[in-house]
Request: fold
Amino acid sequence: MATKKSSSSKPIISTGSGGGKLLPWLGIATIILLLDQLSKITITKLMTFGQTIVITENFNLYFTFNPGAAWGFLAGQSGWQRHFFTVLGIGAAAFIIVMLKKNSAQRLFCWAMSLILGGAIGNVIDRIVYGKVVDFLDVHAFGWHWPTFNVADAAICIGAGLFILDEFRRVNK
Reply:
């Protein structure tokens, strides 16, 4: 009597329809998330709220909280934005994971999405834990003073830049 050969189990997150693997991209997002959270934990433990440490003439560490979105957008609102941006961040993370799975062989696109994913989750964690986002990187030069930001914000901005570059490359093919 013949027996049916058992099918090999497939890892849930190993492959996408693009033929590549999802796990490396989630690994990059995890590295960004860890760098973001470790830097924020360090700042909140070693500095007091509002404290500034001058690093160079154009760069300080300045511990502050941002209850709004990027660059303080909606920071002055009554508090609804905490829940709104938490849900938005979770939804964006889920959408990005689906996009990574579908397009896992597209390297530049996946680098962009992985950076955005890690940053988005990092800021969502802050909103859940603190009700606002920990910011501490303070850059100023040539008469310009950028809003204070964090590692997650930097990863999101770099990811957005890579996404735009990827789209320009795709359009020009």
The first strand starts at residue 52 and ends at 56.
